[in-house]
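User: Sequence recovery, please. Input:
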């Protein structure tokens, strides 16, 4: 019995918070209950409502809770990269990223990490846009932005997953560690898209698990029009840069191989 592993053993759940004092105690308890072996890392950007201090109080009575304090609000993506680094350095074998506002149901955590544990996937996306996935409470406008954003990114970057803008994901630690964090455009939506893009291009096996997404319970949204426009521009930029790199590589290869094998059609591929 002693070598029986608790669900979530080796898993670090990274939870960025900005003004989530009302949500934090409840969501922290629910996460730890859903994954009895996991560690919870709260990454707080010096929330004015005292979320960081509350996290410290929770950590003082529960050794499974850790807190990363950052000096000020620098955006979700930066908070995640910082938290990922801390968890990787601490020896996490898998990592979960999720919101603190109850949009991501802690009850789904075991299903989210199962494909990683069973070695069927390297990145699992909690997906609203596969069979069985749902969005509750959102108005038409927010639904459209999210859905169209995912479709846009999917087409422009030719990616397979249907939900590219969601932020409820599980990572194999080695997969996450293989992605250089430098140069990630760490905004809101675009951070989610870019990390999945980078993982896919690194050959990661990406799975989608259906989730029911709910609007935040309490507190206010940090979503803005600027974040959406940034996402669209960065998606185009990512593809543009990729195509340019590819063209450069091809012209270099043509240049080096110029004197050999230049028969009709040589060097061409579809
Ligand atoms: N540390 C940190 N956390 C952030 C920051 N911005 C957002 N968060 C947290 O990231 C998670 C998602 O942010 P939300 O504001 O819920 O963004 P959203 O889910 O796109 O929008 P709403 O649910 O409509 O508010 C929540 O847990 C936030 O508290 C930030 O700059 N720093
Ligand atoms: Mg939210």
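Assistant: Recovered sequence (270 residues):
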């Amino acid at each position: 019995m002693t070598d029986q592993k608790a669900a979530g053993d080796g898993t670090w759940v990274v939870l960025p918070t900005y003004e989530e004092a009302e949500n934090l105690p409840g969501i922290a308890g629910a996460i730890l209950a859903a994954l009895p072996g996991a560690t919870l890392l709260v990454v707080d950007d010096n929330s004015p409502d005292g979320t960081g201090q509350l996290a410290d109080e929770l950590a003082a009575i529960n050794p499974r809770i850790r807190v990363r304090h950052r000096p000020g609000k620098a955006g979700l993506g930066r908070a995640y990269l910082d938290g990922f680094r801390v968890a990787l350095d601490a020896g996490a074998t898998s990592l979960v990223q999720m919101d603190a506002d109850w949009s991501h149901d802690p009850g789904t955590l075991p299903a989210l990490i199962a494909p990683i544990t069973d070695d069927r996937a390297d990145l699992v996306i909690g997906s609203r846009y596969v069979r069985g996935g749902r969005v509750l409470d959102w108005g038409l406008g927010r639904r459209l932005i999210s859905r169209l954003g995912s479709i846009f990114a999917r087409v422009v970057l030719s990616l397979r997953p249907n939900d590219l803008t969601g932020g409820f994901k599980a990572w194999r630690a080695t997969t996450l560690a293989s992605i250089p964090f430098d140069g990630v455009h760490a905004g809101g939506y675009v951070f989610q898209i870019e990390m999945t893009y980078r993982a896919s291009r690194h050959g990661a096996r990406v799975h989608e698990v259906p989730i029911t997404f709910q609007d935040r319970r309490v507190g206010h949204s940090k979503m803005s029009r600027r974040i959406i426009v940034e996402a669209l521009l960065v998606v185009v930029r990512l593809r543009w840069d990729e195509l340019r790199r590819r063209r450069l590589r091809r012209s270099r290869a043509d240049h080096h191989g110029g004197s050999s094998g230049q028969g009709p059609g040589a060097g061409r591929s579809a």
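The beta strands are 11-17, 39-44, 65-69, 94-97, 123-127, 134-135, 169-172, 206-210, 212-213.
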